[in-house]
Every structure is written in structure tokens, then in C-alpha cells.
Amino acid sequence: MGRGMDFWGIFEKYWPFMALGLWLAYKWWNSRRVVAMLPELRKNGAIFVDVRSAGEFAHGNAPGTINIPLPELGSRLGELPKSVPVVLCCASGTRSAMAKLLLKKNGYPMVHNIGTWSKFLDK
């Protein structure tokens, strides 16, 4: 029984760090998956949206991306057709994850989060 108590004691103490590690691992894995899908997404007419601020976008962006800052996305949904894939990016993947949730909630069936905008430069 002592061993089980040790495990649960460690788990209770460190679960936030374990959760963070799992979340970071998922972000890394998902980003790699979307990068691998880029050729097919491009072939299917995907739109690439950078949800960083206009200032961040001006300091560096991937060719072919359009800038719709996250705070403006809800009011600019009409600029994004639902009939083609939408690939989102930002500085770290956090804002683009929020943008993905917003688009999914508004009926966009093909939404992908590539994470950081520089991932577009990898392919």
C-alpha cells in the first residue's frame, strides 16, 4: 500500500506539470501533422490565416498568409469560405487554437491549427 500512496502523492503534487507536458506534446504532434498535410491542403485550395496582431504580422509573415487578428475574426468570418480548408497560425499556436474553436463553432468543417507561423516556411 505504501507504493500506491507514493504514486498518488506524487500525482497530486505534480499533476499540473504532467498536464502541461501532455498539452505541449499534443501541440507539437498536431503541428507536425498539419505541416505534413500542407501539400494536400494547398491542392484543395486552403486559405492560410495568421491571427496575430497587424503589428506582429508586419514584422514577419509567411508568404500566402492573410492576416485577420484574433479579436477581429468573429466579425470577419464572411471573408473565409466554409467550402475550403482553413489553416490557422499565430506566434505560438495558442491564439490559433482559440481561432480554430471559433471557426468550428461557426460551422467551418475543415479547420487546422499549424501553430507558429514559421511552420509555413518549413514546406
Automatic annotation (TrEMBL):
Pfam family, one: Rhodanese
Annotated TM spans: none
Family matches, as Gene3D superfamilies: Rhodanese-like domain
Organism superkingdom: Bacteria
Domain Rhodanese intervals: 42-122
Protein name: Rhodanese domain-containing protein
